[in-house]
Design goal:
The protein is α+β, with helices and mostly antiparallel strands and about 350 residues long. The protein is built from 15 helices and 4 strands. The chain has a 4-stranded mixed beta sheet, with helices on both faces. The longest helix is centred in the C-terminal third of the chain and has 30 residues. It is elongated.
Length: about 350
């Protein structure tokens, strides 16, 4: 963070403030008595780092000192921002807050501690005109100043879903469904809470179709069920009456693994077939045949794998045909094969 100083005014101030007698006198003169009485000036240490933004270095310079609080082994920083320009900087209070945050980060990196230091900022203004900008951060909120004081820089609001009851979460359907999932997603078998979630989703109006689908897609990908069939049956029982919910599409979500297995198997067998045929018919014809046969075989294996999953779930023939894309005759043949 150490940077070269270009302006003679900046150089003078920083060089002068490096002398401890000058620094002690400065702080004795300008620190409020209530602040000065808390600080042991005999422990002052000059910090070489600068925290001013690069684009402002022509008009601003800063000086940072570290000291100890009286009778305490805790650091306090005295930060001086020197402002030379007469042009009004309406956001100077915000810049001071940003610089203080940088100093906190600097302190943490230097000490490897988790305790934040106290920082007391001062603005040393040398412009020709009286500084018109407020150095009270809350003045920047204009007419909302009082509201900002009551809401900001107070303890942050923590929403710990694990500590909230299910009743509190599901009191609001749209947000409740999201919070409910995050509360219970790490359980070994989510199916015990899945019924409650589906009842929440069932109460969401039809315009929430995409939202409901995104919930189910996340669950199918990220949450483990001991028995996927039971989970899908729960969806059928709770959501099948909603016209906006396409059960075939949801079934594909929950049995995506079958589609992937079929695709991988098709790729492997298609590749082998392409190699064998290529050896017999020549490189060009073998490549064309391998691509064609591999694609067809891959798609067929994928559809068969999905159909078998649906048959195992005892879905209706029309649903199996729609999901897998296979003909009625092929599905009947698969049913016969699986029953023997």
């Amino acid at each position: 963070m150490t940077t070269k100083i270009h302006q003679p005014h900046d150089k003078l101030f920083r060089n002068a403030m490096q002398y401890l007698p000058v620094a002690k006198d400065f702080f004795c003169q300008f620190l409020p008595k209530a602040v000065l009485n808390q600080i042991d000036l005999e422990t002052l240490v000059f910090c070489k780092d600068t925290f001013v933004d690069n684009e402002l270095k022509k008009s601003q310079v800063d000086v940072l000192y570290r000291a100890k609080l009286n009778h305490k082994n805790q650091s306090v920083y005295l930060y001086i921002l020197v402002e030379h320009q007469s042009t009004e900087d309406e956001l100077i209070a915000l810049r001071l807050l940003e610089y203080q945050t940088k100093i906190m980060r600097y302190h943490l990196s230097q000490t490897r501690q988790k305790c934040l230091p106290i920082i007391y900022p001062l603005v040393f203004y040398t412009g020709e005109k009286k500084l018109a900008s407020s150095i009270d951060l809350f003045d920047l909120f204009k007419e909302q100043k009082d509201l900002a004081k009551s809401l900001m820089f107070s303890p942050y609001r923590l929403i710990d879903v694990k500590q909230l009851s299910d009743e509190d979460l599901i009191a609001y359907q749209w947000a409740g469904a999201l919070s409910f999932i995050y509360k219970h997603r790490a359980l070994g078998d989510f199916v015990t809470h899945f019924q409650t979630l589906l009842q929440i989703l069932k109460g969401i109006p039809n315009e929430g179709e995409n939202y409901i689908f995104s919930m189910l897609k996340y669950i199918s990908n990220e949450i483990k069920f001991n028995d996927t069939k039971i989970a899908y049956e729960q969806i059928q029982n709770e959501l099948s009456g909603m016209r906006s919910i396409k059960m075939g599409t949801i079934a594909e979500l929950f049995f995506e693994d079958g589609k992937q297995e079929g695709l991988q198997l098709g790729k492997q067998e298609g590749l082998q077939l392409g190699k064998q045929e290529g050896l017999q018919l020549g490189k060009q014809e073998g490549l064309q045949l391998g691509k064609k046969e591999g694609l067809v075989l891959g798609m067929e294996k994928q559809s068969i794998a999905v159909a078998k999953k649906c048959i195992a779930m005892q879905l209706a023939m029309e649903q199996i045909m729609k999901i897998s894309g296979l003909s009625r005759q092929k599905i009947i043949a698969l049913q016969t094969q699986m029953s023997t």
